[in-house]
Amino acid sequence: MPLADKIRPQTLDDVVGQKHILGEGKVLRRIIESGHIPNLIFYGPSGVGKTTVARIIAKSTNKKLHKLNGTTISIADIKSVISELDTFAGYNGVLLYLDEIQYLNKKQQQTLLEYIEDGSITLIASTTENPYFYIYNAILSRCTVFEFKSVQPQEVVPAVSRAFTLMEEEMGHPLEVEKGVCEYIAQACGGDVRKSLNAVELCSLAAKQNEGAYQVSLADAEQVAQKSAMRYDREGDEHYDLLSSFQKSMRGSDPNAALHYLARLLEAGDLPSVCRRLMVCACEDVGLAYPQAIPIVKACVDAAFQVGLPEARIPLADAVVLVCNAPKSNTAYVAVDLAIADIRAGKVGPIPRQLQNKHYDGAEVEKKGQFYQYPHDFPGRWVDQQYLPDIIKNAQYYHFGENKNEQAFKQYWDRIKGDKNKG
Fold first, then answer.
1. How does DSSP assign 200-241, residue by residue?
2. How does DSSP classify residue 129?
3. Which terminus of the chain is less hemmed in, N or C, by CB atoms within 10 Å?
4. How far is it, in rounded angstroms, from Cα 398 to Cα 420?
5. CB of 184 within 8 A of CB of 154?
6. Distance (Å) of CA 366 to CA 164, 259, 362, 363, 369
7. 171 vs 282, which has greater pLDDT?
8. pLDDT at 234 over 90
9. Phi, then psi, of 69 in degrees rounded to 5
10. How many CB atoms lie within 10 A of CB 255?
């Protein structure tokens, strides 16, 4: 049996973390202590206590417990659970613990629905993915969702220490754990208690014998727990949360935060996503306030792909710091979205005659001719003529930003266009 299962908490007070829902007086704890268990969905990253709490709940009820996993479940498995409802074993109802419920297809969830609805089956499900995206509404509407959060390192340290003590008992000899090992494992495993306990087990098994004692060094812990803090699934919520944090930190002009998220993405080896978000941010958030940032960031991205990791971190760090420190303007981004909104609303209209390609005017055209005025033939290289279709001829999508660059453009065109350019 893995160490994580041997040391698994048996009461709510022993659960590591989750005080926001399991602390004294908190809602989930009150529900569990009431003895009347509704249908529940536990949502959160792996290794934070979802399965442990579900097992504690199961022990507190007099219902028959069934445990299924969404990655391997079949319709036959669900029907097997349902078949017990009319037997002596299922007299008080069935409590079904369903791990990774997001992997059930619609038909499998619908098979459960009728029995969840009438109370024959009490469902406790867990998922590492956002349930509002992955679980069907019919199931969600009959369940209460509780979010489990990553456990803080200081909360994991006591569990790591207890795990080393248990390993001493299991192995039958003392372990000399170097100072800082427990704290390092708790920190490096990124709030995943199960990973922390697995690291303890590996360190204990790899301990070096020295004068009758077995020593667990900090160097061993660093090797065992390397990169364990990375919670990263390229198809999951963590992926998009990390990318969102990266881009929003650059938009918010915080180079320290942006470099932190850059480092996390690069340690996970996700070079393409980093480069894409960098280019988007340079165009969307820096934009016309410092348009030179766009080709500079593009050059850094090209260099990153050419040299590859780990050296790619160098030009990418340059680009991230540049984007963070550059003045910001999203005027062009807002303007094109406003134009797209008009297109989607059907505000299109015929192209003005003076802008059309030169072609033959049919008999139905009363006033024949192109009538296009060539701006270079006029003072200031500009002439007042209509460019937008009639239906939106007065539309104004772009407004000059307050940054130095766009204000310089505005002053120039104010002088040329006079009252025509008030945006």
1. HHHHHHTPEEETTEEEE-HHHHHHHTTTTT----TTSHHHHH
2. S
3. N
4. 14
5. no
6. 94, 64, 9, 7, 10
7. 282
8. no
9. -120, 130
10. 17
What 8-state DSSP symbol labels residue 143?
S
Among 315, 317, 250, 313, which residue's Cα sits nearest to residue 284? 250
Q: Residue holding tokens 């002088």?
A: 415
> In the prediction, which pLDDT does 89 show?
57
What is the model's pLDDT at position 236?
54
Distance CA 402, CA 423 (A): 11
| Res 22 pLDDT > 60 | yes
Q: How confident is the model at residue 222 (pLDDT cuts 50, 70, 90)?
A: confident
- pLDDT tens digits along 296-308: 999 999 999 999 8
23-55: burial string, b at 16+ Cβ within 10 Å, e else: eeeeebbebbeeeebebbbbbbbbbbbbbbbbb
Tally of CB atoms within 10 A around 70: 18
Q: Average of pLDDT values for 70-87?
A: 80
Q: Per-residue pLDDT tens for 247-256?
A: 999 999 999 9
SS3 category, 107: helix
What is d(CA 95, CA 37) in angstroms, rounded to the nearest whole number? 9
Band the pLDDT of 90: cuts 50, 70, 90: low
Nearest to 326, CA basis, from 272, 266, 278, 263:
278
Q: In what order do the strands lie in the sheet with 94-99?
A: 64-69, 94-99, 121-127, 40-43, 144-147
Most confident range (mean pLDDT) of 38-52, 245-259, 405-419 is 245-259
Could you tell me the maximum CA-CA distance found in the chain, to the nearest angstrom? 108
Beta bridge partners of 68: 98
CA distance 23 to 13: 8
